[in-house]
Give the backbone structure.
Amino acid sequence: MRTCHAIGLLAIVLATPVGAIEPAPRPVYRSPLDVAVSPDGQVLFVSDKTACAVVVLDAAAGKPAAEIAVAGQPCGLALSADGKTLFVAERTAHAVAVIDTAARAVTGRIAVGPWPVDVALTPDGQRLLTCNRGNHTVSVVDLAQRLEIKQIPVVRDPASVAVTPDGARAIVANLLPDGEGTNPALGAVVSLLDLGSLESAATVALPPGSTMVAGACTSPDGRWAYVIHALGRFNLPITQLERGWVHTYALSIIDVATATRPVTLLLDDLTAGAADPWAITCSADGARLWITHSGVHEVSRIEMGRVHDLLAGKIPSELAALRDGTRDNIWTQIGKDLNARARLENDLTALYLAGAISRFSTGGNGPRGLALSPDGSRVFVANYFSGTIGQLDAASGRLERTMPIGPQVEPDAARRGEIYFHDARRCFQSWHGCASCHPDDGRVDGLPWDFMRDGIGNGKDVISLVLSHRTPPHNRRATRPDPRECMRTGVIGSHLVVPEPKDVDDLLAYVESLEPEKNPNAPGMAEAAARGQVLFEGKAGCAACHPAPLFTDMKMHDVGTAGRGDPDGRYDTPGLIEAFRTAPYYHDGRARTLRDALTQHGLGGRHGHAEALTPAELDDLIAYILSL
């Protein structure tokens, strides 16, 4: 993982002995992640994750006017209503930077939960919310005191938060599903928080296979919340790619008052995936939604006024006249029976048939954050890999210009591999990229997939790629002897294209650049983890198959977890580094938690001796594994 340039240089200085030759620092790439617009529309504020800075962009001149150094991978931004204060989520600093926009300087820092990635202000400007992916909470900050007053638990990896206009509810997008991979209904959920009591009010289930729930916003009247996500068809084999039934991408609508999901609509076209939606925003009048698609370098514009009319059964005669072969089209079916709305989550053409969606180029690679100008006439999009902000005319969707946020250096092999890894256009019909199954810098999507290396109907839980180049052989059945061959055949089998040798080299360089991160909660578990290490290496017998430093013996074992279609029950021993963020566990994801893995599966002495531990000892063992 590429971290902030300033932090990287500090690490080099501290790690280099006196008199030694310093290693060349990694290139400093410009990677705009989020964008906020001043109330007068004259200034753009851009978080640059890899340069560890907030760039101040002169909107009229189209070029940087200043750069403000921040700490810990700047991510989401929130600008006060008067434009005087900018709040920046600093992921690895576990804090929010407070920036005086006139002075263009950091004036303070507020400690919040670990790994904050998104921020949102309440309408009265008195509180700030942060999504803390490090401990699955949302922090509530009292801005008068500049103090965190509570952390509200949510489900898993909160990635985006939006507040209703009345300030009563917060809508939280939980990035990943939290459950057993053997559950065919497994999918991510959305958390609704009560901002009066500062408690969780409800969870709303998204369709089975929902993951990568990256963005959320609300309608101006507060009636609706909108979330965007991948919709993985993990219950089908990968052979269905040419039919559009491996990954699709969706907009789910939530009724805030009833905490229900009336409908999910697909954003893809019949032969063109809308891969990896990242951010969403609503126009001031609620008539339109804008969505970035980081995998296909586009934005979607959704005519939500029209969509809501159609969902209510108001079908124009010219639309009703269109036929689906000999049948009524989906909208005509809905006009006759509102229950037919459930079919929309499987309809790749509904929005296009209704003329309710348009897709436009952002002028760059990897669009992520976006914002509308105050008058709604312009759309600004952060092109992560290009280091630019794309400016589009909101009425026509025409790209007006791209604005660099700083000098962009030529990518090295690892950066080229990262770009390929996130590029769904390298796949047949753009249905997905490598990052669609391995989001969050090569890690997991929480779903099992059936890649048919050992037959059909026995899906395998996605494996993190961190340190995978050091732990051959590869995949659950160890069918690939080295990482390069694993990369090459993985692209062929899942993307239905044959990569060039240089592309495989770049992908491998990217995977080799991924660095494990320490559990941000490890300091609080230190004493328990120390006791757990003794058990891990002794009484529990874990180290026999999971020896340090990679915590895998790189061998096949049958630990008593054979399932349907398994020829012998033998699977490659997974490494345990970053086990705190790779749930669910076992080859098919049957164990939701490590506790489940150690107490409900692989028993009878076939998977260590956790059964011999007391409850307190089991707690210590789990603390140690979670600290790796």
